[in-house]
Amino acid sequence: MVATEHNIRDVGTLPLSKELEARSGKKEPVLTIYQFCNSTIARRMADFSPAMSAYMPCRVSLVERPDGLYLYTLNMDMMVKMGRKLPSPLNEEAWRNFGGNGCAGTQRRRCAVRRRSIKGSAAPSSSR
Predict the structure, then answer these.
(1) Which domain holds residue 42?
(2) Which residues form the DUF302 domain (predicted)?
């Protein structure tokens, strides 16, 4: 798994649609949030700027829409660039693990959220 190669660990799963189904007894469209974190980089990022902790852990949501399943992630490029310039080597580690193609998919766009079709074709981004 690519995540383990970068020391990124699965730190939680929130099966929200299953919880809603249990409450209502009705079938719900898929809504699951997966959480991942590289604890070493997380500590260093929070030490550098406590505001960065609001973006932790890295979250990937799986959302079922009428036209298929989609993955959504925060635009990690924006997080890595937020505020002051990250010092070396933290900057390089953050980009290698989370920026560009890391958590955020294959296309760089200036938006808050990235969306990618499970089928592999890029879907439009939204800035929610």
Answers:
(1) 2-117
(2) 16-73
